[in-house]
Design a protein that fits this description.
Pfam families: EXOC6_Sec15_N (PF20651), Sec15_C (PF04091). Keywords: Exocytosis, Transport. InterPro entries: EXOC6/Sec15, EXOC6/Sec15_C, EXOC6/Sec15_C_dom1, EXOC6_Sec15_N, EXOC6PINT-1/Sec15/Tip20_C_dom2. It comes from Dicentrarchus labrax. Strand 1 and strand 2 form a beta hairpin. The protein is 72% helix and 1% strand. The longest helix has 108 residues. It is built from 29 helices and 4 strands. The strands form 2 sheets. Strands 1-2 form a two-stranded antiparallel sheet. A two-stranded antiparallel ribbon has the order 3-4. By secondary structure, the chain is mainly α.
Length: 828
C-alpha cells in the first residue's frame, strides 16, 4: 500500500500562471520528501517555514488537499477489493472445523508419542550425563597429567635441597620455570611454586657461600699438610734421583712425583719412585691435594654462581679472600729464626697455599687465572725474601743456616715443579751463603781460639812410628832429616798446627755442604770454596793469630814457636789447594781460578810475632834497666860490672839460644832463622845502648862523678863483650858492636879527657869521636862539672890542682863555651 501511494499521481491544480506552476511543483517535491521514509524531515520542514511569510498557511492548505486526495484513492481501492475479502472469510470459516479435528488428532498422537518416548528420554538424559562426566574425567586426567610432572619436579627439587645437591636443584628450578610451570601457570599452586623459586635460589646462594667460607677455613688448616706432603715428595725425588735414573735405564715404570688432577709434576724431567727395587711400592698411591682437601665446596659454589649468572661476583670474592689468606700465610712467627721447625712450618704453609691455587687453576675454568696466580706469587716472593733476609740475619748457628738453605732449595724445587719462577730464591741463597760463611767464620774463630789456648807451644814429641804416622796423616809434614832420626824424636811444630790444618779442611767441608743442590757448576763451587777459605785464613785465622801474639802471657819462647807454626802452615797451603781441587775436580790452571791467600796471612802473622819478639825483648831489657841502682857520686868504680847488667846479658844469651829452633831451609818464605835472630839481637843491643844513653842523659840526674863514669864504662864493656861473642851467628865483623859505638866514643872522650882532639877534629870524617854529638857531650860534661865542684874538697881530680883551680875551671868553661857554640851552630 505504501508503494502504491508513492506511485499515485498528484492531481494538478488549475494553472493560472507560471508562478503557481512553480509553487505547485515545489510543494510536490516537498510532499514527496515527506512521504519518503528514508529522508530526514527537519530540513524539509525548515525549507517550508523559511521560504515565504505565508508559506506555512499555503503548505497546510496544500497538505489538506493532498490528504483528501489520498483518502479518495484509498476508498476506491477498498471498494475494489471488498468482495474478495468477504469470500476469503467465508472459506476460512469452512476450514475451521477441519482444523479443530486435525488439532485433536495431533494432540492424541503427541500424547501417545510422549508416553512411548518417556523411557527413551530418561535413558538419553542418563547417557548425556555419563558423557558429560566422561568428558570431565578426561579433561581432569589431561590436566593432572600436566600437573603431575610439575609436582614431581618440585618434589625432586625438595629432595635435592635436603640432600644438599644444590647444583642439580638449580637445574631442576630452571626446568620448572622454563618447561613445566608455563604449562599449568593458571593454577594457584603453580603460582606459589613460581614465587618460591627465587627465594630458594637465594637460600642456595647463601648456603653455597657458607660452604665456600668453610672450605676457605679448611684450606687454611690443611695448607700445612699439603705443603709438607709436596715438599717431602720433592725431597724424596732429590734424594733418590740417582736411583731413578738407574731404574729409567732399566726400563722400569715409575709414578709421578706429585700428581694433581691428572697432571704430573716432576723436576728436571725425571720421575721418582720411593723404592726402585720394589714394584709393589712403585704402584703405591701418591698423596695429592684431593686426598688431603675436599674441593667439592668450591666446585659446587662455582657451578651454582655460574648457573645463577653471578660468576663474576663469586670469582672476585674468592680471589679477594685468597689474597687475604696469602698475606696471613706470609706473616712469620716472631721466633721463627730460633728453630728449623719454624722455617719448615712457614715454607709448608706457603707451598700448601700455592699447590691448592695451582690445583684450582687447572681444575676450574677461569676461577683463578695464570695472571692472578703470578701476581700472588710475585707478591709472596717479595715478602718471603724480605722475611728470610730479616730472620736469617738473627741466626748465628751455621747448622741452622745450613738447614734453612736445604729448606729453601726444597721449597724452590717444589714450587718450580708447579711452574712458579724461583730464580730470585736462588739469588737469595747467595746472600744466605754469605750469612752462612759469617756464622762459620764465627764458629771457627772460637775453635781456633780454643786450639791456641790449649796449645803448649812446644815441639810435638813422637815416641813411635805409629804416632809419627798419625801426625803425618793429619798434617802434610815431610822432612828428610827428621825422618832419618831414631825414635823418640820431636817435630818442629806444636800440636796446634795439625789441629788448625784439620779444622781448615773441616771448614771447607762445611762450606761445601752449602754449595750442594744449588744447581751451580763445579767452577762456581770451586770459586765459592776458595773465597770462603780465603776469608777463613785472611780474616778469622789471621785475627786469632794477631790476638794470640798480643796476649800478655805469650812469652818469647811461645812467639818463636808461633813463627815456626806459621811457617809450616804456610807450606801446607798448597796442600789445601790440592784438597779443594780434588773435591771440585776443577784444575788450578782453569781461568779465573781463585788462589788461596794463606801465604800473606801467615807471613803477616810471622811479622807480627817477630815485632812482638822485638817488643818483648825491649820490655824485658827495660825491666832489667829499672833494676839499675848506680851511685852517681861514687869516688871510684867497684872494678866489676853491675849485677843487673850481668843478669841482663845472661838473659839475652839464653833467649837467643831459643832462636836456634827456628826452621832454616831453602824455602825463601821459611828461612827465618838468621834474619829473625839477627834482627832480634841487633834490636836488643840497640835498645840497650839507647837505654844506657838515656840513663846518662836523664834530666833528673844533675851531677855525675868520674867514678860513676868509670863504673858505667865497665858495664858498657860487658855489653861490648857480649856483642863481640857472636850470640847469634851470621853477623859480619863487628856489626853488632856498632850498636854501642855512640856510648863507647862518648865514654872514651870523658875517660881520656881528650877534649882538644874532639874539638879539633869535630866535623871531619876521620874524627876519633865522630859519633859524639856536641849536645850530648855538653849535657854530660855539665853533669860531671857539677859533680867535680861538689866533691872538690874530697879525693877528686881537682885536688891535685887546687893551686891551679882557676885555670882548670877556666879550661872547662872554655870547653863548655865551645861545645855550646857547636850546638848553636847546629841548631842554626
Amino acid at each position: 500500500m505504501a508503494s502504491d501511494r508513492v506511485h499515485v499521481a498528484v492531481p494538478e491544480p488549475p494553472s493560472q500562471n507560471e508562478e503557481e506552476n512553480k509553487e505547485e511543483k515545489a510543494f510536490g517535491n516537498i510532499f514527496a520528501e515527506l512521504e519518503s521514509v528514508d529522508l530526514p524531515l527537519g530540513t524539509t520542514l525548515r525549507s517550508i517555514y523559511d521560504d515565504q511569510p505565508n508559506a506555512h498557511k499555503r503548505f497546510m492548505e496544500k497538505l489538506d488537499a493532498r490528504i483528501r486526495n489520498h483518502d479518495r484513492e484509498i476508498e476506491k481501492m477498498c471498494n475494489f477489493h471488498h468482495q474478495g475479502f468477504v469470500d476469503a472469510i467465508t472459506e476460512l470459516l469452512k476450514v475451521r472445523a477441519d482444523a479443530e479435528k486435525l488439532m485433536g488428532q495431533v494432540t492424541d498422537t503427541n500424547r501417545r508419542l510422549q508416553e512411548a518416548g518417556r523411557e527413551v528420554t530418561a535413558q538419553t538424559e542418563e547417557v548425556i550425563r555419563c558423557r558429560i562426566q566422561q568428558r570431565n574425567m578426561a579433561t581432569t586426567v589431561e590436566k593432572l597429567q600436566l600437573c603431575i610432572p610439575v609436582l614431581e619436579m618440585y618434589s625432586k627439587l625438595k629432595e635435592q635441597l635436603e640432600s644438599k645437591r644444590y647444583y642439580a636443584a638449580l637445574k631442576t628450578m630452571e626446568q620448572l620455570e622454563k618447561v613445566y610451570i608455563p604449562r599449568v601457570s593458571q593454577y594457584r599452586f603453580c603460582q606459589i611454586m613460581a614465587e618460591n623459586l627465587p627465594r630458594l635460589r637465594e637460600e642456595i646462594k647463601e648456603i653455597s657461600m657458607s660452604d665456600l667460607k668453610d672450605f676457605l677455613e679448611s684450606i687454611r688448616k690443611h695448607s700445612d699438610k699439603v705443603g709438607e706432603t709436596a715438599m717431602r715428595q720433592a725431597q724424596q725425588h732429590r734424594t733418590f734421583n740417582s736411583a731413578v735414573a738407574k731404574q729409567a735405564c732399566m726400563g722400569h715404570y715409575t709414578k709421578p712425583v706429585y700428581s694433581l688432577n691428572g697432571r704430573t709434576h716432576t723436576h728436571n724431567g725425571l720421575m721418582m719412585d720411593d723404592d726402585t727395587g720394589d714394584e709393589e711400592e712403585g704402584d703405591e698411591e701418591v698423596l695429592t691435594a684431593q686426598d688431603l682437601v675436599d674441593f667439592s665446596p668450591v666446585y659446587r659454589c662455582l657451578h651454582i654462581y655460574t648457573v645463577l649468572g653471578d660468576r663474576e661476583t663469586f670469582e672476585n670474592y674468592y680471589r679477594k679472600q685468597r689474597k687475604k689468606q696469602a698475606r696471613l700465610v706470609l706473616q712469620p712467627q716472631a721466633n721463627m729464626h730460633e728453630t728449623v721447625e719454624g722455617y719448615r712450618r712457614y715454607f709448608n704453609q706457603i707451598v700448601g697455599f700455592f699447590v691448592v691455587e695451582d690445583h684450582i687453576l687447572h681444575a676450574t675454568q677461569g676461577l683463578v687465572t695464570r695472571a692472578f696466580t703470578d701476581e700472588l706469587w710475585n707478591m709472596a716472593l717479595s715478602k718471603i725474601i724480605a722475611v728470610l733476609r730479616t730472620h736469617s740475619s738473627y741466626c748465628d748457628d751455621p747448622d741452622l743456616v745450613l738447614e734453612l738453605k736445604n729448606l729453601i732449595v726444597i721449597f724452590a724445587d717444589t714450587l718450580q715443579g708447579y711452574g712458579f719462577p724461583v730464580n730470585r730464591l736462588f739469588d737469595l741463597l747467595f746472600e744466605v751463603r754469605d750469612q752462612y760463611n759469617e756464622t762459620l767464620l764465627k764458629k771457627w774463630a772460637l775453635v781456633f781460639r780454643e786450639i791456641f789456648e790449649l796449645d803448649n807451644y812446644s815441639p810435638i814429641p813422637v815416641e813411635t812410628e805409629e804416632e809419627y804416622k798419625l801426625v803425618v796423616s793429619r798434617f802434610p809434614f815431610h822432612d828428610a832429616e827428621i825422618e832419618k832420626q831414631d825414635f823418640p824424636k820431636k817435630l818442629p811444630m806444636s800440636q796446634s798446627v795439625p789441629q788448625i790444618y784439620t779444622q781448615v779442611k773441616e771448614f771447607i767441608y762445611a762450606s761445601l755442604k752449602f754449595s750442594e743442590s744449588l744447581h751451580r757448576s763445579s767452577t762456581e763451587i770451586d770459586d765459592m770454596l776458595r773465597k770462603s777459605t780465603n776469608l777463613l785464613l785472611t780474616r778469622t785465622l789471621s785475627s786469632c793469630l794477631q790476638n794470640l801474639i798480643k796476649k800478655p802471657h805469650i812469652g818469647l819462647t811461645e812467639l818463636v814457636q808461633i813463627i815456626i807454626n806459621t811457617t809450616h802452615l804456610e807450606q801446607a797451603c798448597r796442600y789445601l789447594e790440592e784438597f779443594i781441587t780434588n773435591i771440585t775436580n776443577v784444575l788450578p790452571e782453569t781461568v779465573h781460578t781463585t788462589r788461596l791467600y794463606g801465604l800473606s796471612t801467615f807471613k803477616d802473622a810471622r811479622h807480627a810475632a817477630e815485632g812482638e819478639i822485638y817488643t818483648k825483648l825491649n820490655q824485658k831489657i827495660d825491666e832489667f834497666i829499672q833494676l839499675a841502682d848506680y851511685e852517681w857520686g861514687m869516688a871510684e868504680s867497684d872494678g866489676r860490672a853491675s849485677g843487673y847488667l850481668m843478669d841482663l846479658i845472661n838473659f839475652l844469651r839464653s833467649t837467643f839460644q831459643v832462636f836456634t829452633h827456628l826452621p832454616n831451609n831453602n824455602n825463601d818464605h821459611a828461612s827465618m832463622s838468621g834474619k829473625v835472630a839477627q834482627t832480634a839481637c841487633m834490636s836488643a843491643c840497640k835498645h840497650l845502648s839507647t837505654s844506657l844513653m838515656q840513663m846518662l842523659l836523664d834530666t833528673e840526674l844533675k851531677q855525675i862523678s868520674m867514678g860513676a863514669i868509670q863504673q858505667f864504662n865497665l858495664d858498657v864493656i860487658q855489653c861490648e863483650l857480649f856483642a863481640s861473642s857472636e850470640p847469634v851467628p851470621g853477623f859480619q865483623g863487628d856489626t853488632l858492636q856498632l850498636a854501642f859505638i855512640d856510648l863507647r866514643q862518648l865514654l872514651d872522650l870523658f875517660m881520656v879527657w881528650d877534649w882538644s882532639t874532639y874539638l879539633a877534629d869535630y866535623g871531619q870524617p876521620t874524627s876519633k869521636y865522630l859519633r859524639v854529638n856536641p849536645a850530648t857531650a855538653l849535657a854530660l860534661l855539665e853533669k860531671v862539672y857539677r859533680g867535680m865542684k861538689d866533691t872538690s874538697k874530697k879525693n877528686n881530680i881537682f885536688s891535685q890542682f887546687r893551686k891551679n883551680d882557676r885555670d882548670k875551671q877556666k879550661l872547662i868553661e872554655t870547653v863548655v863555651k865551645q861545645l855550646r857554640s857547636l850546638v848553636n851552630g847546629m841548631s842554626s
